[in-house]
């Protein structure tokens, strides 16, 4: 029960941090894409989006299994 309430408290913070991180990554990525190389940027972007979603999913599953 404590973990569920802890997850409800932490979840918006995680979403906010990931949202800010994606915005900063997008701005930096656009600059990188124009200055250096478009192909490696898209590989990096795909990897980072996959990493963010999988980490968030793992954290969510970890807390949901202990309800």
Write down the Rg: 16 Å
Q: Please count the beta strands (DSSP E, at least 2 residues each).
A: 0
Low-confidence stretches: none
Measured distance between first and last alpha carbons: 6 Å
Mean pLDDT: 73
Total helix count?
2
Shape: elongated
Helix content: over 70%
Structural class: mainly alpha
Q: How many individual domains?
A: 1
Element order: H for helix, E for strand: HH
Approximately what portion of the residues adopt beta-strand conformation? under 5%
Largest sheet: none
Transmembrane segments: 12-35, 41-59
Keywords: Membrane, Transmembrane, Transmembrane helix
What's a concise summary of this model?
The protein is mostly helical. It has one domain. The protein is built from 2 helices and no strands.
Plain-language structure description:
The chain has 2 helices and no strands. With 67 residues, it is an all-alpha fold. It has one domain. The chain is elongated.
């Amino acid at each position: 029960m404590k973990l569920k309430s802890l997850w409800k408290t932490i979840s918006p913070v995680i979403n906010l941090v990931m949202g800010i991180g994606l915005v900063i990554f997008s701005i930096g990525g656009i600059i990188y894409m124009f200055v250096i190389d478009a192909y490696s940027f898209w590989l990096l972007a795909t990897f980072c989006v996959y990493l963010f979603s999988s980490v968030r999913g793992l954290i969510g599953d970890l807390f949901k299994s202990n309800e």
